[in-house]
Queue: 4 jobs
Job 1
Amino acid sequence: MKNIIIVSILKRVKRVSFMINCLQRSLNRELILAIIFCLIVSGTVYWQVQEVSFDDSGGVVGVVNKANSAFVEINQLYAGRSDQEAGADYLSRLANYYQLKIAIVEGQGNITLKSDNIDENKLDLEQIKKIRAGSYTGKPIDFYGVYPIKFNSLDSQVIIMGIPQMRTVVTYGRDPLFAISVAITVFISLLVLLLRTKVKYIKEISDGILEISKGSLDFRITKKGHDELGLLAENINSMSEQLKTQIEEERKAERSKNELITNVSHDLKTPLTSIIGYLRLVKDKKYETYEQMKEYLDTAYEKSEKLRMLIQDLFEYTKLANGDVQIKKSKINLVELIEQVMGELSLMARENHATFLKVYLKNEVSVEVDSDKIVRAIENILVNAIKYSYRPGEIKVQIAQEDKTTLVIVENSGDTIQKEDLSHLFDRFFRVEKSRTSDIGGSGLGLSIAKSIVKLHDGEIWAESENNKIRIFVRL
């Protein structure tokens, strides 16, 4: 029995190993795809970080260039002029064009002419000098350009103000170590993020297998998703359920085997004790007349016949239960076969005050069966009906055909069998009266043998009981 369990476990282990190998290949593909994706992303990040930087120097250069261009135009237009109103309008348009602030100031910083985007009337020339020299401690925003000019015959200065604009400057080969560190960080972070759920679920499955291996066959791994990991969890749960069922069946078989040994020992011991007792009486000449001695011998013979039948039934049941019996089917007339069995049992029926009632729709019903085995099955069913019928009683035998199957029904009058007993009626050594000392006798294997024979023919056998009627159905 243990060998059967070990073989079953090994088969399931091989099955799980095969699934794990398939799973490993699938996970390898997922891992490779994840690594490729992370490499692409981190490579892109590396390329961008290495090549792109931010710089505002270009903005200052742009303001300087605009300021120089604006001053050239101012110098050409305003040198020596005194038309301030016309000059102010042009200065405003020039400032708007170059996006600058332009003012012409005299030596004290008073504004002589300005663009309309300047509100003040005086500029702090000392502060402007400090800003240009880089010694100003404040936070200047504007860039200041200072240009000398003759305006209204006076020495003046053109002050041009502009705000440098930040712009992106593309450079090459800038700080590669920084770019590499950023790319590696992105790669590791993405890989951990992509594989975190899978790794966590694999650990959960591993913990579940460990729990099941400790004997907790009721433990179930939660199925997540429909990928290979979900399939693995489902199959492990199925394996655990099947293993639990098989172990329970093996334990049941072990209990059944022990029960069989106990029952056989009891059934063999009872007639054997009687035989030995009567033979000892004859051997010790503890009889008074020849007729009494003959009575002892007849009783011993009768008990020995019962013992022989019990051993024969037990031997046949064991062969059927172990699957050691091969059936040889041939086409027969089931009506003739049942008639033959009833003829052989007619004497037994008369002794038990029972009669047979035959209900056949046709005189010929062809079936393909092993005739010897079916004879034994029908005989056991009829013998059981004869023994457990009311006396006097009638045993009805019906044969009917349903589609492609043939149905045999044996009905007798007797105490109604409870539903909980009907399900065990075909178990070995089962007796409805619960007592093994019944005067009815028998091995208790008759209906079990009949069931095994019917199953060998891929048929069905079952029992029904109501209103003091017992019916046994055989479908072939």
Job 2
Amino acid sequence: MIKTLNVLLAERSYPIHIGCGILSQVDLILPHIKQKKAVVVTNTTVAPLYLEMLRSALEKAGISILPVILPDGEQYKTWETLNLIFDALLGAKCERNTTLIALGGGVIGDMGGFAAACYQRGMPFIQVPTTLLSQVDSSVGGKTAINHPLGKNMIGAFYQPKLVLADISTLDTLPDRELKAGLAEVIKYGLIRDPEFHDWLDANMEKLLARDKEALAYAVQRSCTNKAEVVAADERESGERALLNLGHTFGHAIETGMGYGEWLHGEAVAAGTLIAAELSCRMGWIDAGDVVRIERIFLRAGLPIVSPVLGVDRYLELMSHDKKVQDGKLRLVLLRGIGKAVVSEVASTAQIAAAIEARCT
């Protein structure tokens, strides 16, 4: 069964289709392809698994496919790799109405979307996420970017897809570590705005880890519902959307400081969320019992709850590049309870430093 949600952004609204075995259901994709040619951007890991299935289905419908296969890994989310996409688009004489399909995880979705935003000042693109993290978070909402040595996702654009097609069956081939990393973003939604979902996750974590299709489909659907509501209310992150970054300011510092690819994004977000919870507790906004409850759910998901030792000064320097910095002030997403997140700039440097030290190994 296919579940369809909608991201409501006026004339830029688009559907999110969620289901098992829907990758080859081209009737869901064809209405969003304007030409008889499309580009599929994927990577060396996903291509052998799913490129031929998608290409065969589209070619049977009369759409010729140009595959662009990139190296796999966060460390390749760079200008140099992005230019490989532009080289292919220009070499094939792709036009402004040629559709770009991003087939893969968050790195492919981010780079494919950014390339689509830039090529001839904007070409249509479709997200086909194949990891849990990309299905529940990065494929929805139009954030596209590449990394810079000084900061993660610092160069990019807001650019919405025409469609998100999330096939739960693609999670069958996802490595356990990647599945667990995706659960960090799922847990996030319960912590920031959906306490009932947090309770559901607490009761169903073992099913998710066992890749129960029904449980995974529900988790993706509930996460996308939360994400779609937030994006519809605040597309360009001027207010509520910033709450989706719980744990990310600390997490991005971990990813950058350790070297891109050493920690998976979800692993860094999990550890970063515990720093945020620690800080929230030190500010008197949540109690120690809440911190223990948050620790427990991340531990049950097989995720880290302590951060690497980079040194407080290094953390603070990396965090100074965060996109939520305004007028030189660092704003953090903190918790006032399970299911209630806030953006605040009231934490002092000493409080932030103490929280980092408390949660580092």
Job 3
Amino acid sequence: MIHLELSAQHQGLQDQLKMVAEHMMRPYSRKYDREEHSEPVELAEVAKLLSGARGAGSNAAAGDKQEPEPGVVKNGGNLMSVTAYEALCWGDVGLMLSMPGRGLGNAAISAVGTPEQKEKYADSYAAMCITEPGVGSDSANISTTAVLDGDEWVINGEKIFVTAGERCDTLVVWASLDRSKGKAAIKSFIVEKGTPGCEVTRLEHKMGIRASDTAAISFTDCRIPKGNILGSADIADDEAGRKKAFGGVMQTFDNTRPPVAAMAIGVARAALDLCQELLAKEGIALDYAEKGVQLTAIEDELYRMESEWHAARLLVRRAAWMADNGQPNSMEASMCKAKAGRMGNYVTLRCVELCQGLGYSEEHLLEKFARDSKIIDIFEGTQQIQLLIVARRLLGKSSSELK
């Protein structure tokens, strides 16, 4: 059964990483927020510490498929991942995304890669290339193509909003083998940076997470080895096969959405902590022994935000725990992403408003927390897409039946 509290091992990791966030990330928050696209070289050692903690804490990495064992409860790489993301994003979301190490592409390789691919790219820093101009949230309509030519795939197309697209060394690229066959022909491919025909064309200027590079990447007759496809190259002819094929590609999201949701948990906790610290100086402090009728309007709102935060965190942990224990978690992954993304946006912005001038100024980090939180509700599937997925699961509807 699931336990709602962290194990001593996971709690120890979170405590250590929160110290890292406070003393090795927060001091650089303003610097790299202002110096957009500058690489935060000070975080190289932090990344090494995180890599060591991850290796020591679990034999499984986030995104690894776990087989259920009767009577055995695992708290593995997925739960460790959300625990780490929460702690580090309490420090700074943009800097966490900028640390060299495991990117979203690594989760894809771990989820559906062959043993040889996992071994070869175990130490790579892999970004995920999905979004395209004019496609938006509908991943089934991507136009990037991959054509087999002898022993090589030839990729052509353009990807945008690629997190860590410039600093990574490996890309996981979604492309279609045959656009006439729809989503059944969509596969993912491993492309190493520096491959001829693969080019970073620009870096985006953003409202938040400015420390993180967000790139546009073009592929022009980009040739990669035949073995760099993730999963099978077969295209199913029947409806059931097509659903299964695309479902395998989409499986990556079931493992990456909980960690992204954990980012919202971390930054919302940072905003709540700072907001309460500033309000306490004005004589407004929470006393959990008080009855509801005795609360001021501000105290009541703080309590409500605390309850929303706890609810979102429990959803995130449940989705990660299910992945660790080999349980299907597609609906739960979407639930936690939708809830945490919305909660993070509301809490961080409301904390800015409650602290008035101090919240809006750059004297404190509250306004930055609010700017950074917005993207979490958008990338890795918008809140609206997550709610649509949940509705389909609850109602037993297909994507064609409920749009």
Job 4
Amino acid sequence: MTHLIIPAEWSPHKAIWTCWPSAADLWQEDLASARAEVAAMICALAAPTPAGKVGDVMHVLAHGEEAVASARASLPSQVRVHPCGFGDIWLRDTGPIFAKREGRAVALRFAFNGWGGKYDLSFDDSVGDRVAEAAATPIQRADFILEGGAVDHDGDGTILTTRQCLLNPNRNPGWNEAVAESHLQTALGAKKVLWLGDGLANDHTDGHVDNIARFIGPGRVMCMAPFGEDDPNHEVLNQIAADLRSMTDAAGRALEVVQIPSPGLVTDEDGEAVPASHMNFIIGNASVVMPHYGTASADAALRGLAAAFPMHRVVGIQSTAILTGGGSFHCITQQEPA
């Protein structure tokens, strides 16, 4: 079997791919605000740092003539806008996972079933092929269902995931940990899989790991501490931290666990808790962009993230409109390794 590796997100990028909010019927009154938040993220990732670190080459998919025109009018001229069909902007899940096989780029493609049959949108099963083609990267297919936000990678073969998502019968019926690990070893080059339990309350992805815990360096992982007595994820977040502290990675290192505060209780217009998370940051070449929701925890979370990434500019950007669709900045991006 040829050697396959998913480079860590902090490894140098050739580009970052993302999507422009395009479907007015999906976004409705939040369309303009979502576009403004996505534009702010794109500009932050593309910008160089004062120290001379070069920002990311940004590729943006836009669906339909109006969306293409809007993206081109809203974004810097160096951003590359691609007319392309997609159901919605969650490219982390519908796009390819870019990997390296024997040092050469490959786009890993998996089956997609709308997060366990919740959302059936045109083009979501094909946009990953379009991205791979635009990136001129050969495709390697796997015959099981997997979303990119369900797995996090340390670049050394350790994969972090959740039982709530990967073992959910609405994805791959009959899977247990052993079966899942075998598939992840073959398709993603996993040397060791670290299992967490449940994700955030009311997360329609069924517990994607990129909302709760992320690798931030070799042997280092970040997760959230509960914020406020009314944090709806109080028990879940404490359990995640405790589980991570008991784990070792593929290299045998005990994980160093770094915590930043969660956003705490964030509600929708009906008063229901929504899966707001500071963990849904995207690590660029020069910048780390963290979502915030106007909560009191945002400044402390930014300071913690800045301490973890001293060589990056760490930027907090409002993500309230994007969250109405269920995710944030990591959910809408996919890095292409250099």
